[in-house]
Please model this.
Amino acid sequence: MIDEISLNILNILQKKARIPNVEVARQVGMAPSAVLERIRKLEKQGIIDGYEVRLNPEQFNRRLIAFIFVDIDTTLISESDPDQDEVHDILAKMPEIQEIHDVAGEDCLLLKVRISDHQELGTLLRDKIRPLQGIRSTRTLTVLFTHKETTRFPISGILTGQ
Model:
């Protein structure tokens, strides 16, 4: 069970993971050693899953975001077939693909890709994704402008069940 102090620590870390431990301790009203112990416990429990640096994609010529719906021909690959996992593994190794989600609906997968331009998107689709065995079709949406993008999610209310 996560208590209110741990939730406060998690909220602080979600906003700025590199905040000094002393500052976290000051904000929650605890000794730095106690805060460090709590953070280590949250990491050990798998509640804190890791820390990442967010790079500015424009600085690396990765301005274009696209979402690709992938339909897998289940007559070629069954749900219990290890080849379907192989498709997921091959897709996961493609550095352009940031996210892979199994989805409900007419398509099987939703991919989020970040690439330099439409030409690179075409190459990714034509040369890497569509040739994979079991891929029946793809549909692609390109993002014109991003208003919000985050990995944060609300954790307040977890203690009260809200």
Summary: The radius of gyration is 21 Å. The domain at 57-142 is CATH 3.30.70.920 (Alpha-Beta Plaits). The mean pLDDT is 90.
